[in-house]
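Objective 1b: paired records.
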Amino acid sequence: MQRRSRGINAGLILLLSQIFHVGISNIPPVTLATLVLNIWFFLNPLKPLFESCLSVEKCYQQKDWQRLLLSPLHHADDWHLYFNMASMLWKGIHLERRLGSRWFAYVIVTFSLLTGVLYLFLEFALAEFLDEPDFRRNCAVGFSGVLFALKVLNNHYCPGGFANILGFPVPNRLACWAELLAIHFISPGTSFAGHLAGILVGMMYTHGPLKKIMKKCAGIFSSNMHYPGQQYHVNNSGYSRYQDSYQYGWQTYSEEIPRNYDAYTAGLSEEEQLERALRASLWDRGTSGPSPPPYGFRLSAEEEMRRQRLRRFDHQ
């Protein structure tokens, strides 16, 4: 496994543009640190991809357990980095403000490790049950397993509504599974076991014992789960309520403010961004056809009409 050499890292440039478009001061600290860390390791990898990717053969059989820490922070190319970090930006803004920065950091670290461990278990199980040793050698890198776990959390906290998966409305509670299948239908080379591991870790947190175990392991911090900061509460009318807390007492107030993410998504939902990123990545790898429009910034007339039709569908 070797990173593609490129004269211009278009995905990285687009990611940086999106970050600055949102505004660094508007990105919660743990989310920002995660973005910076992944970008840093993309530009300055600690090890070559083949020495940092996660596999049963390398981790379990050769006892190279440091790959559990390295693999989520390394990406195969700039479009791989862009897709994952653009999704992290969207999820982090929502979840960190809801959970608080310290707990969100704890969640990120825990999910990173557990997703890797569960990925190894799934690959080992497939190798044993199917009697196919190649599963032990499947090597995966990237942050997408963690992102699938975070998507389960986000859908758990906002259960209503529909997600747009490749143009089809899917209930939010099923969106993770639909996206899992959609990604591997469009791009079969991605790690199905890695993404599935992320979904299962997210479900262990929302519907299983993981959250309680994490609280117990946190020890003294388990009794103080909410830290001073802005807390967002989403209601069905499409507005957010927020509260600010202060060290020497509480000042709470509520104000309805429209949630407007168009400034950095061009009005696209996360699933529409996924579809656009995958198409751009496939085009970038050598498919023929005209250059795709800049992802996340400008919409063609046809796409604008498609968005309007989706809005009318949502309001019906």
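Objective 1b, second protein:
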Amino acid sequence: MMAATVVSQMRMGTRWARVLWLHLFLVVVAAAVAAEQQVPLVLWSSDRDLWAPMVDTHEGHITSNMQLSTYLDPALELGPRNVLLFLQDKLSIEDFTAYGGVFGNKQDSAFSNLENALDLAPSSLVLPAVDWYAISTLTTYLQEKLGASPLHVDLATLKELKLNASLPALLLIHLPYTASSGLMAPREVLTGNDEVIGQVLSTLKSEDVPYTAALTAVRPSRVVRDVPMVAEGLGRQLLQTQVASHVIHPPVSYNDTAPRILFWAQNFSVAYKDEWKDLTSLTFGVEKLNLTGSFWNDSFAMLSLTYEPLFGAMVTFKFILASRFYPVSARYWFTMERLEIHSNGSVSHFNVSQVTGPSIYSFHCEYVSSLSKKGNLLVTNVPSLWQMTLQDFQIQAFNVTGEQFSYASDCAGFFSPGIWMGLLTTLFMLFIFTYGLHMILSLKTMDRFDDHKGPTITLTQIV
């Protein structure tokens, strides 16, 4: 009886051990897949001999977190105390191949200022593939090494700063990519980012400030295209045509002496008494869009869009935004105070206070809608006959430069569904690991055995 109990416990422990090793294997595989994501890192400095020539590495080598620290430590300890980090949303080494002057066409390069900075820099280093984890901790690493908190700046604030060569400073300049603008081709966006880099470097050069600069991204911009497998094999894929992309319309721009307000959406639909109308084609890319009533100054902006006829009447949509200075954050923040719909002498008000962000940024959200299933960011205090949905909404009413949006402050929260799924999965695996380890440690071997020459072992039942 005792032997049967022990055998049963050992079998149970073996079963849980197998389950435990299976989950550990899945965790390792998931980590390996995540490690395949890498981004380039370009470093250059106004000081000499900060980086030794790189030893030849095999093709496809990925720079790890520890290896990156060996490259950065000499530059941070011996180099300038002013460090610039140009952080782009997405970037891959293929972007330099596709849009750079790698074939001698310097006039067509989207990285002319970056290439010029690398040519003139006394010290430079290019790492084609850096592990995503190393990049995700780069800002924290630089902060610890310099002993200075990161300062998010743009061209306007950079000109007002007085940098000191002896005092450490960590300046973060965010650069958008196609995911944040959504309105321009990658070459145009990369060219605009390169111009920002050139203007920042020109400002530092005019002030004669020594610096070390780095350009990298949060995640890669190039992914393997998901082409469906067909029965004829991979050769058939070469004959497949690419799916036509969605038509991208230019944003609505209100100008007085210069562009003041930018507004864009992938889809702009409104409903009156549950009758829906798509206003996308009537709003974006229209030369004679009625913007009568629009207004702008440094602290208040109103974008007025008038359509006639719409639902048998003249309808005006007014986006009202305000910019205020908050001493706690020591910066200006904008808020869309309300959205008004004027029709037949009546006005419907929607509260849109969740559309907010720093005044130097634009605002982006996947859905701004009065429908509950679309997030319900448009809130009305009284029942309204009007409904509205803006898909892939983006707006900027302050610090507009040209016809391009600034870096977008997104409405998505930090804890996205993917993050919650990851946390719950991790906790579940940790529970299985703990339970399996407890089962293995609770196994007990026999310390007494039957002796056919002696008395039979008896087990006293414990109640």
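The chain is about 30% helix and 30% strand. The first helix runs from residue 2 to 35.
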